[in-house]
User: Fold this.
Amino acid sequence: MSQISDPIFSEVAHATARAVRQPPYDVEAEQALLGAILNNNMAIDKVIDLLKPEHFSDGTHRRIYELCLSMYGHGDTADPITLRRVMGGTPELERVGGGGYLDRLAASVVGIINAEQYGRLIYELYIRRQLIGLGEDVVNESFDDTLELNADQRIAKTEESLYQLATTGETARGFTPFKTALKLSLEMADAAHKASGLSGVTTGLIDLDNLLGGLHNSDLIILAGRPGMGKTALATSIAYNAAYAKSEDPDGPGAVTAFFSLEMSAEQLATRILSNEAQIPGHKMRTGKMTQDDFNKLGAAVGALEKVPLFIDDTPGLTVGAIRTRARRLQRQANLGLVVIDYLQLLSPGVSSRRESNRVQELSEMTRGLKILAKELNVPVLVLSQLSRAVESRDDKHPQLSDLRESGSIEQDADMVIFVYREHYYKKAKRPQKKDGEDEGRHARALEEWEDGLKATEFRAEAIVAKQRHGPTDTVVLHFNGEYTTFGNWTDDDHLPYGG
Assistant:
């Protein structure tokens, strides 16, 4: 037979071949695995953590595997005889020739040893089929002008779908022998001893580290407070301190840090950090009222900070799925060790959320997703959160767990809850006003007491650890510098570090 030389005809032939390409599957692999299971049900143990019925390409094979799992789970034997009683006469079985097909499957046994290999091949082909389907959906939805999604939302939806697909085959950890768990516990205690009590990521704040032992892997930490308390400033200080410690000692308690800022821009966060490090007030930097000496300080500070492994993502309206995808990517690229999110109420619900769900349900889903993220990445996830207005209606403005805004699941899912509180913020708004008929001297004394109270609390802040799964709850005093919008260690003549 002569070869076709017409270039136009050849191009049409290639296009036709591309158009009729079939999704990847391997019926023989599916038959071989089912044969192994029908001969020895213990072959299920080799694949049960990875393989689900929907991973089979053939509908009959899907049903057979589903029945095998069910029977094995109930302690029954799954073989051609028992399956024939259940499937006899069904469309799935009749489609492949009836009960005799089960006998032929059992005859195609490959041995229990090869079951896992075939299971992985079936799963791999399933993932490839899903990727093809996802790619087609992306193309079709991108052409569709009727969808109420903008470009960023379309990208977020695709990222979330890809992440869900990427984690489909993550098997459960299963049982950990107590001997292994003991060894891990001993290693943790030894690391904490060598790091002077720090078993987690440092916050850079001595008293807070002494109380918490650092921020622990797989923990969801909620940092909450009313507006004006300094939540973002404290989170920025912790993020920078952890990243700076990592740059100084790669094997120390620091961490490569991802800061997802849904409220402030990357430039604004960098300005805060630079302002503190160069000791130049932020308002001078913003208004350009700097001397040549100030510029020299800035240059020196920038040179010192460039090596700090702090990564800022200021994309607004991210979903938990999008954060998960970006954090996983950074973990692969730079060994991510800490995630900070500012803040919970600015996250967008996932594209899969039901339209009729209310805000409480959405927040519950998001906090649950963030806890799963902490466990998946095995890093601390520090999330900022607003508090309800109930704080303002009380004489004592110290926040409580019941003040967590809009959802009780925040407290439930969190491993640790820390409140930020600055008495100075409230004192400043309570300047004594002279009442009708009030003695001038009495008013002057009240004004003097108020001014003394302002001075005493100006730089004082509290980090109230209201919940901690791994240790005690208590209040830690911190130093707050409003000029540079940063937190530091509290020091005075009577102060001893926490536990000292």
Notes: The radius of gyration is 31 Å. Confidence is low (pLDDT under 50) at residues 1-5, 352-356. The domain at 27-147 is CATH 1.10.860.10 (DNAb Helicase; Chain A). The chain has two domains: 27-147, 200-421+459-489.
